[in-house]
Amino acid sequence: MTTRRPLAATLALTLAALAGCVGGPSYAGGPTEEEPHGVVIPGDDVFLWAVDGQDVPSRRSKAYVEPGARRLKVRINYPIDNESATPYEYKDVVINVEDGRAYLIERKGEGQFGPYEVEVRGSPRRR
């Protein structure tokens, strides 16, 4: 019986911690899932590094971003066969985020060496 109590307590604490993270802001000062927001989704080889100068801890997953003009800092990874000492580059991207829309950020360009361009594609507007 004594071994089950610590296990049950550990599971309960883990579930409580995970439940507290759901819907929270993606960066300091950013909106929660319940507040007006757009969603920024990094594509292949693109990492969302910062929004308006605020660090984004979960760089590869979607981020809730406040509506309005936003400056995103993205990191673009070069292909794996690139032998550069720095196999990535950073770019600043300015987008106008609208509530309820999603934005996919993709790397554009061919070859194994940058610099690459970034394309932002937004979902259709709601009517």
Descriptive tags:
127 residues, 8 strands, 4-stranded antiparallel beta sheet, elongated, 1 helix, 14% helix, 4-stranded mixed beta sheet, mainly beta
Would you spell out the secondary-structure blueprint of this structure?
Elements: H1 4-21, E1 38-42, E2 46-51, E3 54-55, E4 63-65, E5 68-77, E6 88-97, E7 102-108, E8 117-122
Parallel strand pairs: 1-7
Antiparallel strand pairs: 1-4, 2-3, 2-5, 5-6, 7-8
Q: What does the model show?
A:
This protein has about 130 residues and is mainly beta. It has one domain (about 25-120). Helices cover about 15% and strands about 40% of the residues. The protein has one helix at about 5-20, and strands at about 40, 45-50, 55, 65, 70-75, 90-95, 100-110, 115-120. It has a 4-stranded mixed β-sheet with strand order 4-1-7-8, with no helix packed on it. Strand 2 (about 45-50) and strand 3 form a beta hairpin. The chain is elongated and about 45 Å long. Mean pLDDT is about 80; it is low at about 5-20.
| Count of runs of 4 or more consecutive helical residues | 1
Structural class: mainly beta
Q: How many strands?
A: 8
**Largest sheet properties:** 4 strands, mixed
What share of the residues does DSSP label as strand, in percent? Answer: 35-45%
First-last Cα distance = 58 Å
What count of domains describes the coordinates?
1
- Average pLDDT works out at 81
What best-fitting shape do the alpha-carbon axes yield? elongated
Largest sheet, spatial ordering of strands:
4-1-7-8
Uncertain spans: 7-21
Which value, in Å, is the CA radius of gyration? 19 Å
What is the string of helix and strand elements?
Answer: HEEEEEEEE
